[in-house]
Amino acid sequence: MSQGAAVAREAAKPQDRGWAWMVLLAAVLLQGLTLGFPSCIGVFFTDLQHEFQASNSETSWFPSIMVAVLHGGGPLCSILVKRFGCRFAVMLGGLLSGVGMVSSSFCKSISQLYLTAGLITGLGSCFSFQAGVTVLGYYFVKWRTLANAMASAGVSLGFTLWPLLSQHLLDEMGWRNTFLIFGGILLNCCVCGAIMRPVQMASGSLPESPKPGEEPGKKAEEGRLFNGASSPHPELQQRTRRTACFQMLQKNLAFDIFCQNKGYQIYTIGVTWMMMGFALPHVYLVPYAIQNGVEERRAALLISIIGFINIFIRPLTGLLSGHRVFTGRRIYLFSLAALLCGLSNFICVISAEFNVLIFYCVILSIAMSGIGALTFQVLMDVVEMDRFSSALGLFTILESVTLLIGPPLTGLLVDITGDFHYVFYNSSFFLISAALFMALSFCALEKKTKLKEASKVPLENADRYQYSETPTEPQPESQSPPAVMYITSI
């Protein structure tokens, strides 16, 4: 009897062991299939321009929409995860991604690509990617930092393999057949999603407790109001619906966290500004190299070099940032990586020779490794895990705006001036300014928090709360974080 109970307890706690590592492997593949996929779009840039007679600005809208929707669909993904679970969201995303790329192979205009490859594939990639990131928070506690870093290595695999595969298929069968094959490859996201079975406690899912200040019968009463059973007044019903709609938006977009948590506020603004320039080299590096006389296959190899180095550097960055020395200070590592990423762009301005561009890719990939490995880990540091999905939704939808407008605006500048150097000037400006803003703001916030703590009784493990000004109660050491309790649905 006691042995069976012990087995049940072990089965109810799969964190950091057993099946969790299979889920991590699926997350690695997912990030390679989704977040790594836009890296190959630059390979098709010139062919799409010739096919549809489009300008740099018009052509760059295609990858911009894809990347923006990939990040900006976070709130919708958050709703899907909470209602149906991570497995359903990942598999639905894989289906949408595949359908989008298959449809793209039949497009007759660049605007149709905006809808199929941009919107549909981008939304599918968003569901698969963000649900895959969220599920890691449930399956890993002790090794969460390492798990996030290893999962982000999947992006590096995608960066390495997608451009090489794209160039080979493009040379052999053209961009339309290549897009058709890509549709079949992206359907493998459904296989990865099938591996991500829900985490449940032995007693099943926990009942939802009322929020502070909320009466237990309030939700039932609101439900009756929606059905018109309790109140015959249309104005009251309409006001109740507006209130419920506002509460739903606040819950899924984390507006309350953004307003109350200064750390989350600073980090979200900084990353949103940074993304205005972060994606520019990925979109324009291959066209820039081809324009300066680099052969097409060698130009596509540049993106693969970035991805290949990322494979080794990202896990090392994750291990380094997971050391207790950096607990509460990962934001400074992230800012340093963004600063290095911005400074590296000046290498391209100096020369466009292939050997120089290889050196640029090495430096850029090291900086990108830090950004990629730490982006979600820093977000998990500044918000509690039980609100991570909502915080991720607002975080990604804000950065998607700048990801959407950054490349087309820069492409318009290149069309007007005919000078690709503006791509790297713009990228450096946004990355460097964002890095300085985040580092200096968090430094000031940390000093302000220490002054507040000095005026009252110091808390144990106070470094855990230095990012937020909202008071929280430390959990007993014997308890696990509430976020790893369960994932709804199967």
Structural account:
With 490 residues, the protein is mostly helical. The chain has two domains: 15-199, Growth Hormone, Chain: A, CATH 1.20.1250; 253-453, Up-down Bundle (Growth Hormone, Chain: A), CATH 1.20.1250. 76% of the residues lie in helices and 0% in strands. It is built from 20 helices and no strands. It has helices spanning 2-12, 19-33, 41-52, 56-72, 74-84, 86-104, 110-139, 144-186, 188-195, 218-227, 234-253, 255-260, 262-278, 280-291, 296-321, 330-344, 346-350, 354-382, 388-417, 421-454. The longest helix has 43 residues, at 144-186. Mean pLDDT is 78; it is low at 1-11, 201-231 and 465-490.
Arithmetic mean of pLDDT: 78
Order of helices and strands: HHHHHHHHHHHHHHHHHHHH
Give the CA-CA distance, first to last residue. 28 Å
Please mark out the parts with pLDDT under 50 across 5 or more consecutive residues, or reply none. 1-11, 201-231, 465-490
CATH architecture call of the largest domain: Up-down Bundle
Count of folded domains: 2
Please state the overall shape, judged from the principal axes of the Cα atoms.
globular
So what's the CATH class of the largest domain? Mainly Alpha
Portion of residues within helices: over 70%
Structural class: mainly alpha
